[in-house]
Each structure stands twice: as structure tokens, then as C-alpha cells.
Amino acid sequence: MALLQISEPGQSPDPHQRRIAVGIDLGTTHSLVASVRNGIAECLPDEHDRVILPSVVRYTGEGSGRQIGFEALAGQAADAANTIVSVKRLMGRVRADVHDVDNLPYTVLDTPGMASVETRVGPKTPVEISAEILATLRFRAEDSFDDDLFGAVITVPAYFDDAQRQATKDAAQLAGINVLRLINEPTAAAIAYGLDQASEGLYAVFDLGGGTFDISILRLTEGVFEVLATGGDSALGGDDYDRALAHFALQQGLGDHAPAPETLSNADKANLYAAARKCKEALSADGVTEATLSCPLDSGDVHVTMGRDAFAQATEALTQRTLQAVRRALRDAELDKSDIDGIVMVGGSTRMPVIRDAVAALFGQPPLTNLNPDEVVALGAAIQANQLAGNHTGDALLLLDVIPLSLGIETMGGLVERIVPRNSTIPTARAQDFTTFKDGQTALALHVVQGERDLVADCRSLARFELRGIPPMAAGVARIRVSFTVDADGMLQVDAVETLSGVQAHIDVKPSYGLSDDQIADMLRDSYATAEADIKARAVVEARVDAERMILATQSALNADGDLLNPAERAVIDEHIAAVVALKSSDDAAQIEAVTKALAAATEPFAAARMNRGITQALAGKNLNAV
Amino acid sequence: MRADQTLSLQANDFELFELPEQFKLDLATLTQRWKALQAQTHPDKFVAADAASKRLAMQWSVRVNEAYQRLRQPISRGAYLAELRGHPVNAEDNTAMPAAFLMQQMAWREALDDAQGDATSLAQLADETANAKKAWLSEAEAAFDTTADTAQAVGAIRALMFIERFLKDVNQQLDALTP
Lengths: 627, 179
Prior knowledge:
A: alpha+beta, Substrate Binding Domain Of DNAk, Chain A, domain 1, Substrate Binding Domain Of Dnak, Chain:A, Domain 2, B: mainly alpha, Helix Hairpins, Monooxygenase, 2 domains
């Protein structure tokens, strides 16, 4: 898309105006923000010229109350219980579902909906903690450009489920960020890599981060990034290698006296894992075959020399889990490993020689490591953000991504009826018919689950809701159509309708895990806006921004396809635009919203006509090419 | 409003991709048109657009993906085509199958039971079933596109549905053997 024409009556359009759009990699270990400047994607540095922000938040209870990034990390050794690392592991999870929760060096609380962390300033949710990190990156971007952020593309592991995606979106909203799109980390990496190398063909992206593992198989052709299959484990990453190594060293160093790892104090855990991580990183350097893991603990000092072989042995089970996921993804894509033209390595943990060797052995070719595995995800997200914001003027990219996990409904006997199979291209919608099993049944409970197993108990529960008011009928007569809609962010909506009576129910899959809008509003009140006036002001600002967006969108549509309208139709739309322009500076949020809505309604038939034109042109173009 | 409209959301899958309403299909053309349509309708193209355009984009993009999924796989394509021609496959109620195929099914099931854990026999069984799949695909194509015998084509599609499920079981056992 060309630069949008931004013009108000009486003002000339400014061709240099661009929207500040960034890509954010919100990682388990560290996070980055990148943007396209002068046609090149680059990571934005902080004032000390560091692009990496450790994903660490420490609640100090003094001053601003918190430290974020390097400062927080430096305070971890002394204050582990209030220093939250790897918060990504807790996103969208209840305590019981957090992998290896007892080994985290802080206290995780079993709060309803989502786990939270006990700190000296009270319990903090993973969403609030992540929002601190996101807000820090937002301010970094706004300082870099000396302008407000238009929006951000935020990356999530491809294998994140609905609850984890929702939690990420909630965190962004809390940080005051307009989320243009959530995109999958391996897909983002493929964009950065594919554009950099002008590659075409079949690629596997192997993404092992601090706490998550993804494998995606993509076909790259002429700017189209088509994800054929994706797989992984949202609780497998470099952290697990640290832990496996730490536990191995604990055993080796203290022998029979070794305490059970989960009984260590928070400070000991933090120190031991930090030492293990240092040892792992040392062993990953070129030419290093041995490193020492040394750490004082309450129960005695651990001092162990590790060779590469011992490391490989201690972490063998983890590496095998990644390879299993790769094999399944290949099978889902109906490809053989020999079909793959290249393997792109992403995530700091792919620096480990054990991983590089295992991947090379599986595919029979060395993986590609020419892009910085820490930065490539943020860079790809920045390229996509620039496109989505409408800044990009060259050839358009097209991302065709898939959902990582099947979605279904619980049926009789605790079984899962799959409605949307995994690896379906998004956006997608599927429907399935169900019926009542009792005479005169007037309600039907629906339980939405995500996962590959046949038993509900083995899948993740996403939401429960009820369709009520079904007229009494004999068992098996009612026709209840359950529709699943997955949008381009990979987020699910479920609708149920009894087709004979028309009784309906709808749910945005949110309440059982994500935060309600009220909760978000409460948190916003607590953390950013304190006074009543601020909240009102915010509503007005948001309404104005929406009005502005609506005017711009309509004008650019009129510029492109105004010929579809006859003068009378055009006049109606122009009148509505004028109404919004007249009111958009008012201080009444409701009034601004009302005229914006009216404009949206007035342009609906025009939008339909434009879409038809686009589709007709798409087919016409391809027909010419095909002849 | 000017009517340069040729397609609606109600167009059938073949019309949507401007492909002939038949079983034989050029996958490359289908994929190319799928991408061309997504390039016009994908919600990513409408992030900065008005709400009406966003909603329409979502509807169209979903519709295009649905049609692509269905046409891409021969079994779902065949079932869809049969329905368009007035012979729904009705997998649940219509269980009539040629006796010879039923015998074949039983023989395969027995072979699968006997092959428990033996990679060579499993691989052999997978090959054999894959060959049968090819034969049934040819039969479906001939019945749909040459003799226009939809009832016979439906029989072939139903046989293919069985083979697909069976192949999945075989592959599952093969996977269990891969370390």
C-alpha cells in the first residue's frame, strides 16, 4: 500500500508523515524493540547503546518502586524473591500448569484465573510484570523517534495457546500499546531472514529461546510467507538446560548430601541457576571443551568441571524433545527432511553446540546461523509492523500463518470433538452441529478446549459457556451449531446457535483466563492513571485517535476507489466525514464515538464494493499470468 | 454503486477460484489463486482501515481459506463435488460398500494387528495402502470427470475416507517406532 494521503479540508497532505510502528520481541530471558528506519530494520538501543533489555522486573518498594532490565538483573542475587525473571512462563497459566514451578527463585501464588507472584509490594500478575517490560520498550521507541507510537507488532511463540496470547495482548494494552498484530516468533524470523537473503523455497525455523521452543516449516515465494506446519513446546527452553545442568552439578558436587533442588532457598536457586547458565554459555563458545560450574550454597559449595559430553548427556532428554517436535511438524507439512532447503536458527539457546549438532544430524545439512539469533525475531516483527502501519511503499509481504493447536468442544464422556484442526491457515472459521441428549433439555453447556489429545482432561481448558433458552424438544431434535472463528492474531471466538429457534450465545474466549475489560481498567487506574480526570482524558484521547483513524482510512479509500460511488453516495460519505471533523476536537468522548460510528456505518456498502473490486482484480491478474 | 462485482461470499468453492467444477485439479493454479485472493482480502491489509472493511476482510479471508482447504485435499474436494452434484456422501448413513473392498479392509486390519512393532511389515503395509489410495483416486477422477457417474464416484470417495483413516493408524504405529 502506498503512503496514506493524510489531509484535512484546507490542509495539504504531508507526504513525509509516517507512523511510528515497531516490532517487539517479548522474550523469556530478554526483550527487544526494533523499527524500520530509512528502509532498514534495526534494533533500537537504550541510552547505554544496548539493544537487549533483560526481561527482569524487581520490585524494590522504594523510589519508583521497581527496576527493569539490567538494573533489576544486577539486584537479583541480593533480592531473588522480589526479582521476577522468566515471567513469560507464567503468562496465561494457573499455578498448577506452570512447568517446574517449584524451581523458580520466587514465590508463585495460586491465584484464580492466572498465577501471580508474591512480592514485597503485594501480588503481581504476569500481565502487570510483562507490561512493565513492554512499557520500557515503548518509551525507548518514543524517545528514539521523539514521537508517539502508532502501534506495535508483538511476537509470541508459535506454540502459545489462546490464553497465553490473550495475556500478551492484555499486557500490551496495560502498557498503552496499540497492538497491530501478534505474530509468531519463527514467522517473524523467517521474514527477516527471507528478505535479507532473498530466499525462495522450503525452510524450517528452529527457535529455541529462554523458555519456549517452536519449529515452523514455511514455503517462501515472491514475498509470500506461507506457514505449512508448526509445532513445539511452550515450556521448553534454555532455562530448562540451565536447570538440568544445575541439578546434574548439584548431584555431582554434593553427592549423597545433595538437597532436592526444589528445597533450596530462593537465593540459592537464583545463584545456582545463574552459575549453570554461565557454565552453559562458556561451553557454547568456540573451541571451549570444558567449563567450571562453581557456586556457594547453604548446604555446601558446588564446584564441578563440566565437559561438552557431560553437558550433552545431562540435557539429552531436552534435545530429543525438540527433535520429536521437528519430526511431527515435517509430517504435518507432508514433507521429508530432505525437502528442506535451509534451517534457520533463532533464539539465544541455538548457540549451544549440542543443538546445532543435533539439528545438523537430523537434516543432514548445517543450519544457517548468519543472522544474530537474538535480534532476528524483533527485526522481522519491525518489518511487518512497518507494513501494517502503511509506511511501506515497495512490494507487499503476505503472511499466511496457522494455528498451532487444535480447537474443540467437550462431548459426552469427556471426549474432545475437534472443530478446527491444528495447522489450519488463519483467519479461519469452522462449525459443527450438536444436539440435545435429554427430552425437554433447555440449556447446553459448552466447554472449549485446545490441544491434540482425545481426552478433555489432557487438553487445555479455554472457556465454558452456556446456551440457554432452547425451547423444549425431544432429545436429538435440537440443532445446535457451534462456530469457531480464529482471527489473524490466532485468537478464538465461539458462537452457538440453536438453528430451529434462533437462540444464540457468544463468547470471546477470554474470561476463563484473560482479564476482563473491567480488570484491565482497574489495573490501568492503579498503575498509570491515578486521578479520575486522567481516565476521562484518556477516553477522550482514545476517541479522538479512533476518529482520526476513521477519517484517514475513509479518505484513503475514497482516493483509491472513489469512482465506485455516484455523486449522491459520495455526498453522503463526505457529510459524515465533515461531521467527524467538526466534532473530533470536542471534549465529549461519547459524542466523538457516535459520529465516528455513524461514519463507519455509512461507508459499509462502499467497503463491500471495494472488496469486490480487489477480488476481481486479483483473479483477473492471475488469469493473465496463467495464460 | 457501480456493479463491477462478479463474486459474492455465496459463490461455490470452484467459482471462487475460477476453476472448472471437476475432480481433477491443478494444485499449482489453486495455490497461486489462493495467494492472489489472500493478498487482496487478508486482514493484515486492513489494519489501518475502517471497521466495515476490517469485518469484510475477515469474512472474505476466512471464506477463501475455507475453500482452499476443501479443494486442496482430494477427499474433501470429492465429497464437496458430490454434494454439488446432488449426491451427498453422507458418511454416517450410507455404509453400502463393494464387498471386495470390505474384504480388503478386513485383511488390512488383520495385517496391522499382526505387524505390531515390526517396522518392515508396517512400512510394507503403508506402501500397499498408498498404492490402493492412488488407484481409488484414479477411479474417483474417471467417475467424476469422464463418465459423470456420481454414485460410483461417491463409492470411491468413501473408500478413500477409510484408507485415509487406516493410513493414519499405520503411520502412528510407525512413528511410535522412531526414537
